[in-house]
Design brief:
- The chain is α/β, with parallel strands linked by helices.
- The chain has 2 domains: about 20-240, P-loop containing nucleotide triphosphate hydrolases (Rossmann fold, 3-Layer(aba) Sandwich), CATH 3.40.50.300; about 260-340, no CATH class.
- It is built from 14 helices and 11 strands.
- The strands form 2 sheets. Strands 6-7-8-3-9-10-11 form a 7-stranded mixed beta sheet, with helices on both faces. Strands 2-1-4-5 form a 4-stranded antiparallel beta sheet, with helices on one face.
- Strand 4 (about 85-90) and strand 5 form a beta hairpin.
- It starts with about 20 loop residues before the first strand and ends with a helix.
- About 40% of the residues are buried.
- One of its GO terms (molecular function) is ATP hydrolysis activity.
Length: about 350
C-alpha cells in the first residue's frame, strides 16, 4: 500500500505487471498544426515515445496547453500524427474508417465532463447501448448493458435503465460514461481528467473503481490529468509533459517522491501536502509555434533563475542545447541538463 500524502486518500494497489511487451506504443510522435495567417506551425506534440503495458495505468501529467490532450487524441486515432507512429498490440494503427472502427472497439475514451458526454434526451440504457449498436453487436444487448452498469458500480442495473442524465448525481453520470466504455469490452481506456468535475467526496470512489476494473478485467489505462495527487493514487507510471514533450517519466513513486526535473518539482511544490516551499513559475508556457532553443523549460526554470544551474556549469547548455526525446524504458528518466549533473 502506498503511503498517504498526495491528493485523495491513497488507494491500495497491489498490482504487478504481467508482461513486458507494451499494449500501446508511440515512437517519435510529432503532431503539428498550421500556423495562423501563414505563420510557423504549432508543434503540439514534438517527439514522444510512450509505452502502456497490459494491465498498466499510466498518468500523463502537465499544465493546460502542454499537449497532453492532443497526444491522447492521437492515441485514439482522432488526430493523425504528422510523423512517427502509434502501434497497438504490435500492429501499426491504421487510419482508414474501417481500421479505426475496429480499433475504437478495443480502445475507449472517458471524458472529463459526464454531463457533456451524455445526451440529455437519451436514457441511461440507450447511452450505454449506443456503442453496441454502432458496432453491430449480435448478442443479448440488455444483458450486456446490465453487466456494464453493474461493473461500473450502478446496482441493480435495471433500476437505472430508464433514468435520464439529469436524474443522476455527478458520480452516477461518470459511472454511466464508464459503463458505456466497458460495454464493448475494451483493452485500453483513455481517461481525460476523469474526476476533475466531481466533488471531492466522489473522486476517491471513481479512482477506486478504475483500479478495481484494472485488477478484475486486466484493463490498461492512460489517465490524462493536471493533478499529481491523482497520479499518485492511481498510476503505476507517470509521464510529465511540457510544451509537447515528456520531460520526466518513471514509476510513480520514484518520480513523485524524488522528482528530478525542475518542472516536476514545481508542480509538486504547490500541493497542500508538499513539505517544500511552493515554486511559482513565472510567465506562461511558450507558444508551441515558437519553442525556444535549448531546454524548452529554461525561460521559466527556477534552477536557472536562482543561479544553481550556473554553479553546476550547465547554464549555457540549458539556454542553447536541446535535449533528446526520452526513450521508452522501465526506470526513471529525465530531460534536464542540471539533473544530469546530479546523477550518479
Amino acid at each position: 500500500m502506498r503511503a498517504g500524502g498526495f491528493g485523495e486518500a491513497a488507494v491500495t494497489q497491489e498490482h504487478v505487471m504481467t508482461t513486458t511487451s507494451p499494449l500501446l506504443s508511440t515512437t517519435g510522435l510529432h503532431i503539428t498544426f498550421p500556423g495562423r495567417r501563414g505563420g510557423p506551425a504549432a508543434r503540439a506534440v514534438d517527439g514522444v515515445d510512450l509505452d502502456i503495458g497490459t494491465g498498466e495505468i499510466v498518468a500523463l501529467v502537465g499544465e493546460s496547453g502542454c499537449g497532453k490532450t492532443t497526444l491522447a487524441r492521437a492515441l485514439l486515432g482522432l488526430v493523425p500524427p504528422t510523423s512517427g507512429r502509434v502501434t497497438f498490440g504490435g500492429e501499426p494503427l491504421g487510419l482508414t474508417p474501417r481500421a479505426l472502427k475496429a480499433y475504437r472497439k478495443r480502445v475507449q475514451l472517458v471524458l472529463q465532463d459526464p454531463s457533456g458526454s451524455l445526451n440529455p434526451r437519451h436514457t441511461v440504457y440507450d447511452a450505454v447501448a449506443e456503442g453496441l449498436r454502432i458496432h453491430g453487436y449480435a448478442g443479448d444487448e440488455r444483458a450486456a448493458v446490465a453487466e456494464a452498469l453493474s461493473r461500473a458500480g450502478l446496482r441493480p442495473p435495471e433500476r437505472f435503465f430508464l433514468r435520464y442524465p439529469h436524474e443522476l448525481s455527478g458520480g452516477q453520470r461518470q459511472r454511466v460514461v464508464i459503463a458505456g466504455a466497458l460495454v464493448l469490452e475494451p483493452e485500453l481506456i483513455v481517461a481525460d481528467e476523469p474526476v476533475a468535475s466531481l466533488d471531492a467526496s466522489v473522486r476517491g470512489e471513481i479512482l477506486a473503481l478504475l483500479l478495481r476494473l484494472r485488477d478484475e478485467l486486466g484493463l490498461s489505462a492512460l489517465v490524462v490529468t493536471h493533478d499529481l495527487g491523482l497520479a499518485w493514487n492511481i498510476a503505476d507510471r507517470v509521464a510529465v509533459m511540457y510544451l509537447g514533450r515528456i520531460v520526466e517519466t518513471g514509476p510513480v513513486e520514484d518520480v513523485l517522491t524524488s522528482p528530478q526535473h525542475p518542472y516536476t518539482q514545481a508542480l509538486l511544490s504547490v500541493l497542500p501536502e508538499s513539505e517544500s516551499p511552493p515554486v511559482v513559475l513565472t510567465g506562461e508556457p511558450p507558444d508551441p509555434s515558437r519553442i525556444p532553443e535549448g531546454c524548452r523549460f529554461h525561460a521559466r526554470c527556477q534552477v536557472l533563475a536562482s543561479g544553481e544551474a550556473a554553479r553546476a556549469g550547465v547554464a549555457d547548455l540549458c539556454r542553447s542545447r536541446d535535449l533528446p526525446v526520452l526513450a521508452n524504458a522501465p526506470g526513471p528518466q529525465v530531460a534536464c541538463h542540471w539533473a544530469a549533473t546530479a546523477s550518479p
